[in-house]
Amino acid sequence: MSIRVQFMGPLANAIGARETVLGDDAGMTLRALLDRLESRYGAEFGQRVFRTATPPRPLQMHTRIFVNGHAVDDSMLDTPLPAAGAAPGASEVLIYFMPGASGG
Hints:
104 residues; globular
């Protein structure tokens, strides 16, 4: 089984990729997956996904991550991703970057 990751918006433009497929490591957490993606795509990825470079590395406020269609937040970073076969097809992680907006 594999994990398909899709990148949207400015994050996809910054790292130069719209999609990647990774091997499924049993028990891998979302944090481990994000660390793996940061190793692949570099510091630009980490800066756009995490608020800090030091632990516990909470997510940026404008980053939205979905696992199999369900939104996740900081409290779920250390939760194992769904096991292969837990849902039809591959475990999917959809990552998209939503730019912040301000008004006054």
